[in-house]
Amino acid sequence: xxxxxxxxxxxxxxxxxxxxxxxxxxxxxxxxxxxxxxxxxxxxxxxxxxxxxxxxxxxxxxxxxxxxxxxxxxxxxxxxxxxxxxxxxxxxxxxxxxxxxxxxxxxxxxxxxxxxxxxxxxxxxxxxxxxxxxxxxxxxxxxxxxxxxxxxxxxxxxxxxxxxxxxxxxxxxxxxxx
Length: 178
Description:
Layout: H1 8-22, E1 26-27, E2 31-32, H2 33-47, H3 55-67, H4 70-73, H5 78-84, H6 87-96, H7 104-107, H8 110-117, H9 120-139, H10 144-159, H11 165-175
Antiparallel strand pairs: 1-2
């Protein structure tokens, strides 16, 4: 039997609990993972004006922001997410899920970027995630900062879309790239 579809706020809490309590996942080794999800959401709020005004779309994207790592890190499947939300949210989360791979290059392969690039709402969520990670890595002087700098041209090549210029300008500023 199909589960009752969760309201957006219920799904957000589910995502936080799944990462923090069920998986005991940490961000940067010591922070509850939900801190990362909230940080990604702060970029959603900053750039929400770039999304269609439709509240259904915005709720799907909000759910995608909080659920973007569920498949990759929290042992859920695409169908689990469809059952809890809807196909549109599950598609966003699925597109944000890295490929399997032993190296960063394998996980961020051309096929990963091509699939992600086919879903503009997933691009928005992924850019919020990257902005959060790049900013955090800059503020903490993390080795990841240089990896985000090295990834920038690939991101532009695959994910740059008209309408998201402000997000790329912000990322360029954070990463100090040209």
